[in-house]
């Protein structure tokens, strides 16, 4: 059995470690202040090393470290992942680019043309991370006031139209959100491999849409029993439609030679806890974010209070933006927790660590080779490879 493993590319910039979680000194997300290294101000002038150079370094590092590809997130604070994927494709060879985007802000015919063009140019290295938006201020930044369940209905119709025009047959469509008349891709673009679809969302509306469209149902990490229940719900709905989805999990990792060293990193980052910032980031109607909030206790006496099961820690969002849950432990422990997720039914991972560049090497060299070797003998045979 093989597992697809992606790495996250920090599109919003990056910081040196969890010990400096709110100081973005890699990339220009925080401007060109003193201490930035990508780009940097040297002698009063920019050094000519742009943030795209830094993103390319992360992509090349993770490709060489054994990752199948990279997730390119999309938020109001990031650059556009479609444009970045086009730039980074020339810097890599087989590396896949998982472009995150919200279908509401593109017409499906234009998205089909963009996607087919990128597939043709890269030899089929585009992957979709379909997100329908979490509501709140972040959604309003896009000018989107569509209600929660309607956003998933819009996403579903978007993917129906996109697939409808993909192979070149003219499509007439008069739907709730989109209309087309004779829409088709030109012969040179028609017939490209359709991108794999990673579909996110925890609500009933999301699960319904995922059942129809997802190749991989993508979730943030949660306590394993809750994750299993979520997967069971998606699987049951998809089976009614005659489909069999795969499952993927997005996970932050702090892995070191020893468990003590890994928790020491968390302890250093704990000085930067900002619950108010985490609460602001969670504003909106995202069911997934609400689920996460329910696992973080109101009273916290120390960082180990947030270890909900061995090596599974739900305090990351209190230190920096993003998912709450991640894995903390020795290389062997983190690999074992990943293997347990594979046993649970996970087919793909999107891993991340700060800084993205150095941690891509660390996780690729120290954790990935252990996968499939930590499981007890009665489990299935060791994973043959990291990627397909």
Automatic annotation (TrEMBL):
Q: Does the keyword Flavoprotein apply?
A: yes
* Keyword Oxidoreductase in record: yes
SUPFAM superfamilies annotated for this entry? Bacterial luciferase-like
Q: Which UniProt keywords apply?
A: Flavoprotein, FMN, Monooxygenase, Oxidoreductase
Q: Where is the Luciferase-like domain?
A: 43-347
**PANTHER family in alphabetical order:** ALKANESULFONATE MONOOXYGENASE, ALKANESULFONATE MONOOXYGENASE-RELATED
Q: What is this protein called?
A: LLM class flavin-dependent oxidoreductase
**Lineage summary:** Bacteria, Bacillati, Actinomycetota, Actinomycetes, Mycobacteriales
